[in-house]
Design goal:
Number of strands: 0
Low-confidence stretches: none
Largest sheet: none
Order of helices and strands: HHH
Distance between the termini: 56 Å
Strand content: under 5%
Number of domains: 1
Number of helices: 3
């Protein structure tokens, strides 16, 4: 699919340079970056689903516990 995106000029130049250095097209470089980000997001979602059953530790409670134990 063909689309139009707006990029910061410095980012655009850096990506064009990277594409030239790696022998990859600009489009492929952008697509690969988006795929990588999407897959990373999916991993984060999967991790959060698995961790949903873990006990919740509120920051203030942890700080109070550390202070009580003399760790802070």
């Amino acid at each position: 699919m063909r689309t139009t995106i707006t990029l910061n000029d410095k980012l655009f130049r850096a990506l064009k340079l990277r594409a030239a250095e790696t022998g990859t097209s600009f489009s492929q470089l952008v697509e690969d970056a988006l795929k990588y980000q999407y897959l990373e997001d999916l991993e984060d979602i999967e991790d959060s689903i698995h961790r949903k059953k873990e006990p919740l530790h509120l920051f203030d409670d942890v700080v109070a516990e550390f202070k009580a134990e003399g760790l802070l």
